[in-house]
Amino acid sequence: MFCVTPPELETKMNITKGGLVLFSANSNSSCMELSKKIAERLGVEMGKVQVYQEPNRETRVQIQESVRGKDVFIIQTVSKDVNTTIMELLIMVYACKTSCAKSI
User: Fold this and answer.
1) What residues form DSSP beta bridges with 101?
2) Which residues are in the Ribose-phosphate pyrophosphokinase N-terminal domain (predicted)?
3) Residue 22 forms beta bridges with which residues?
4) Which CATH class is domain 17-98?
């Protein structure tokens, strides 16, 4: 099975010019596997991001590459701890938004 991106989508989302960034959240290993498969299918590399929890359970996100003017996709699966998973996703979205991503 082949994945072909329609030309109108390539133009709108700037895929061919490196304007697409794909991040995976830390929810569990299946999320990372899914993200890698999606990145492989799209022919893009995974974005570099570090998501971790402080000892006081505060979630921290460090985006380790520029997302300015790019279309960002965040892959997140929901596991047992739904609250932590959703907060992690929202913090990642906020970090991308404040880093001037074109769309999230």
Assistant:
1) 68
2) 28-104
3) 46, 73
4) alpha beta
Encode pLDDT of 33-87 as tens digits: 999 999 999 888 899 988 888 888 888 889 999 999 999 999 998 877 888 889 8
**Cα 85 to Cα 17: distance, rounded to the nearest angstrom:** 31
Are 47 and 79 spatial neighbours (Cβ–Cβ below 8 Å)? Answer: no
CA separation, residue 28 to residues 5, 9, 47, 69 (Å): 28, 30, 17, 29
DSSP character string of 24-92: E-SS-HHHHHHHHHHHHHHT-PBPPEEEEE-TTS-EEEEE-S--BT-EEEEE----S-HHHHHHHHHHH
pLDDT above 80 for 99: yes
Integer CA distances (angstroms), 5 to 1, 39, 70, 88, in order:
13, 13, 17, 29
Confidence (pTM): 0.77
Sequence spans of domains, the chain: 17-98
